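Protocol step 6 of 9: fold each sequence in the batch and record its structure tokens directly after the sequence line. For illustration, a two-sequence batch is reproduced in full.

Sequence one:
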Amino acid sequence: MTESTEKPEADPETAALAPALGPDELEEIDNILDDLRTRGEEIPQWEFCDGFLAAVVCSRRPIAPAEYLPMLLGDGAELEVAEGEPLPLLPAFADAAQQARFLELWTRRWDEVVHQLDAKVDRLDDERTYQPEAMDMRGAVASLTEEQRAEMDSDEEEIPSFGQIWALGFMFAVENWPEDWAAPRDKEAAQWINDALDSIVALTEDDTGKPEVCMFDENGPPSTSQARVEAFGEAIWAVYDLRQVWKSLGPRVETLRKAPEPGRNDPCPCGSGKKYKKCHGAG
């Protein structure tokens, strides 16, 4: 038996996929957002942006950047962009180069999320499984030295729970496009969507359970409850469900309402001056 010399076919799931954002690029996008906050106080953290991105990816209707980026980084007003033309400069960005770099990094993360959510996976430890950009801030702070913690702003707001900011970003998108997230008529599909959204909403709440694990450093001090870790896993599967349900249903079809038919003795709407029964209503 001779060994085949044919090259294996490229895996369509990995072909032509841009590399995922690495630590340096994630730090870069954090720095861009920090700079944006010098011109707009409402600019969110990257974790919030990543949750928002996931929701837009899962939305029933394809939403264009000209519509969703102003909602995330601007005043919410959709940008007017001619077909094939680049996005105009959003006020929060310092210049066109900064916006272009942000969009480049954003697009790479977008493509990665789409690829992960469309992959056939059945366990969370599969390297192809979608992983939200969620950070265990409580674990990060608990892992600091006493001197480092003393240098932190004591007036800082309460440290968010693991996955909380990501979930708030996801639900921010859902709440701003309610028509696109309205329950469909199909009762089974509607139940799937409601259950999935409930799993994500659960992460927007504070983790009040007993700290048992550290998601920031496996050897770090406990900062997150086991129940929270399980809820985070359920939220990941919920994103898969939302993606698949909306894809199977397709965009919402707008039904045209038929104009009420005039009475037989009313003037005919064609403008002839005759009664409807003597004109287009005859026969």
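Sequence two, same batch, same settings:
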Amino acid sequence: MLLVTQNPAADIVATRLFLRTGSRWEPQEKAGLSHLLAAVLTKGTDQLSSLEIAEQVESVGAKLSADTSTDYFLLSLKTVASDFQEILSLTGQLLRFPSFPEEEIELERRITLQGIRSQREQPFSVAFEQLRQQMYQHHPYALSILGTEASVAQISRTDLQEFHQTYFRPDNLIISIAGCVTLEQALEQIQQVFGDWRAPSTPLPTLSLPILTSYPQNTITPQETQQSVVMLGYLTSSVNHEDYSALKVLNTYLGNGLSSRLFVELREKRGLAYDVSAFFPTRLDQSQFVVYMGTAPENTEIAIEGLRTEVERLVNIPLTPDELQVSKNKLLGQYALGKQTNSQLAQIYGWYECLGLGIEFDTEFQNNIAAVTSSETLDVANHYFIEPYLSVVGPESFVSSFSTSQS
């Protein structure tokens, strides 16, 4: 699949190569596999060393990187138009013929393990990790894309090669290009790099993921820190569900920016929060709607009460016409600002195609947001915001007293 957005205003071409894989496709015992693969993919091919690759990219001032997410794997490149063919050719070699040098695997493994250990020292990361594990249990979304110490330690070069062989194939590839290039030029250059790449006869694996059901619970972890982090989580819908747009509007109203309901009510008026917000990530499978706060340890119980009150308010009181319109305007304005550069355009159109939505979702999303009504947000809130999962991390003395009061 090739998507081309012509933008001759600047002599730059940005390209995103998406593969329908990522941490969602990993076996749980090999969690972190796609992250480790992304880290070593640019470190060698059958013909080039890591240094030679870096020199080729940097000699023309280009940018080239690999990354992974829950629902996709991505190679990103940006260069001036005159160097596009050269860097695209290099990207094709990396995508098709990575060598996975053992020394690079071990180096990136150590860096990943350090990252996992560092996450355990950050109260927000700890709180979010335990919230994910409560909500998703045996689903791949339960874990960080970095994986766990145990899983990363046992990933072998063979594992990387097999994962690459399974998912890195032309019938699983989406190429999104934006910039100073025509469709005809892009087709010709893509044909030169990938024209001889043939898909294997074996079909792509079919995932069998657990069905997610909400069983709210509390998880409280003591950690020596200057603040408590409180999170409430609600299992919600995927991007393909009809409730997606209303949830996006509710998320914007509740936790997006300094004018959001959570910020104004819990930080500005009550002075409870060091940090307070909400997020609702776009996911192929059921997503999560999360509200969180960083607060003084002695305010832990009040913070939980405050967050619950604000979410429950959405269940009982419809948004006013002004609240609804302001939220829509904010969401659509930020969406428009996120499509200003060639890199942003290549990213969003390729991402939509990778999710199975098609580039027409760009227009559909904006129309759907504009069409959301107050009664719709009230219905959606009543459907999802029933009883939250609770995750708390804070100093042991306060967490212990809080645990006792909750039992």
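Proceed to step 7 once all outputs are recorded. Observation for sequence two: The longest helix spans residues 102-119.
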